Amino acid sequence: MSSTAGLVIPCKAAVAWEAGKPLVIQQVEVAPPQTMEVRIKVKYTSLCHTDLYFWEAKGQTPLFPRIFGHEAAGIVESVGEGVTDLQIGDHVLPVFTGECGDCKHCKSEESNMCNLLRINTDRGVMLNDGKSRFSINGTPINHFVGTSTFSEYTVIHSGCLAKINPLAPMDKVCILSCGISTGLGATLNVAKPKRGSSIAIFGLGAVGLAAAEGARIAGASRIIGIDRSPKRFKEAEKFGITEFVNSEDHDRPIQEVIAEMTNGGVDRSVECTGNIDCMIAAFECVHDGWGVAVLVGVPSKDAVFMTKPINMLNERTLKGTFFGNYKPRTDLPSVVDMYMNKELELDKFITHRLPFSEINKAFDYMLKGEGLRCIISMEE
Ligand SMILES: NC(=O)c1ccc[n+]([C@@H]2O[C@H](COP(=O)([O-])OP(=O)(O)OC[C@H]3O[C@@H](n4cnc5c(N)ncnc54)[C@H](O)[C@@H]3O)[C@@H](O)[C@H]2O)c1
Ligand SMILES: [Zn+2]
Ligand SMILES: [Zn+2]
C-alpha cells in the first residue's frame, strides 16, 4: 500500500476555466480510484492538437472547467477494486481510448475500437459513477478523454493504461500515448509498405512524420512528403523523407503530380492532414492494381469524399485508421520496446521541453506551428 492510497490527494493541476484562456495552475483535490480505476502520478506529459482543439472549443461542445492532457507517462499510485493487472509502482502510458478486453471489438483481432472505452470527447466524468474525481473546494472539475494528464495525479480507467517496460525513459516514451503511435501504426499496421516500395505521406505534422518513421522502419525506398507549409520541410529532413512536394507550387491536382513522379502512382499513401482534398488526392495517387491509401486525419464534419468508382474497380484500396490500429494495452508495450531496441527513433520528435509551471508556453508553440512535441516535466 502506498501512504496515500484511499486518501484524497491535494496536488497541482493546470485547470482550463474558459475556452482559449491560459490554463491556471492551482491546487485540486484528486479522489481515490473506484472500481476498475487507477490513480497515477504523472511524470511527463506533452501537448497534442486534440488538447488544443478542445481548449479552443471552436465547433466542439465546450466543457469547462476542465483538466486537459492525454499524452503522458506516469507511475501507479494506487488501484481501485477489481484491478488485477496493474500494481503500485508500475510504469504506464495513459491512452485516450481503451481496451476493456470483453467487448466484441476487443475480442476481434481486427479492431481496436472498444465499445466501452472508445474515445468520448464530450464526457467529463468517470464511467463508474458518472462523477469527476477532481474538485476544487467541492466544485467538480471535468476530465478530458478519460486521461486529464495536466495534473500531478489523475484517475484513469484501468483499460486505458498500458503497462510498459520500467526501464523506458518516460520523458521520451510519453509521446507514444497518442500522435506518434497513430502515425506509426497507420503505416506499419494498415498501409504495410513492402521493403523497397514507394509511399506518399500527406501532411508533415507529428502524425505524418510518425507515418514517415513507420515507412523508414518498413524499408520503403521512396518516401514522398507533401505539405503546403515550407516551414515543415526543414523539420522533416531528419525523418528519412526522400522527396518533398509543396502542394502550393502546383496548379494541377497533386495526385497527378505524384502519379507522374512515380510512373503511375505510389504503392502506398498515408493522409495526415484532415483536409478532404488531400484525402481524395491520397487515394487517387496510389498505383492501380495494388495501391493502398490510408486516411488518418480527422476531417470537418461536413466533408464528403468524392471519387470515381472506377478508381476502386482498378484495384486501389481505401482504408482508415483509429490510433494506428493499436490495441492500447496489448500493443503499446511492444511499441515502447521497439524504441528500447533502437528500431524506432523518438528523440527527433521532441523539439521543446518545459517545466509544468510554464505549460501555457507549449500552447503558444503549437498555435504558432513551432516544433513537433513539447515535453512538460511535472517535477521541475
Ligand atoms: N485517426 C486518428 O486516430 C487520429 C489520431 C490523432 C490525430 N489525428 C489527426 O491527424 C491529423 C494530423 O495531426 P497532426 O497533429 O500531425 O497535425 P498538424 O496540424 O501538426 O499537421 C498537419 C499538416 O498538414 C498540412 N496540411 C494541412 N492541410 C493541407 C493541405 N490542404 N495541403 C497540404 N498540406 C496540408 C499542414 O501544413 C500541417 O503541416 C489531424 O487531422 C488529427 O486530427 C487522427
Ligand atoms: Zn472493449
Ligand atoms: Zn492526441
UniProtKB/TrEMBL annotation:
UniProt KW keywords: Cytoplasm, Metal-binding, NAD, Oxidoreductase, Zinc
Q: What is its main location?
A: cytoplasm
Q: Which GO terms describe its molecular function?
A: alcohol dehydrogenase (NAD+) activity; S-(hydroxymethyl)glutathione dehydrogenase [NAD(P)+] activity; zinc ion binding
What GO CC annotations are associated with the protein? Answer: cytosol
Report domain Alcohol dehydrogenase-like N-terminal positions: 37-164
Family matches, as Gene3D superfamilies: Medium-chain alcohol dehydrogenases, catalytic domain, NAD(P)-binding Rossmann-like Domain
Q: Where is the Alcohol dehydrogenase-like C-terminal domain?
A: 206-338
One biological process term from GO is:
formaldehyde catabolic process
Where does the record place it?
A: Cytoplasm
Q: Which EC numbers does the record give?
A: 1.1.1.1
Cofactors demanded by this protein: Zn(2+)
Q: Name one Pfam family in it.
A: ADH_N
Q: Which family does it belong to?
A: Belongs to the zinc-containing alcohol dehydrogenase family.
Query: What name goes with this protein?
Result: alcohol dehydrogenase
From which source organism is this entry? Answer: Tetracentron sinense (Spur-leaf)
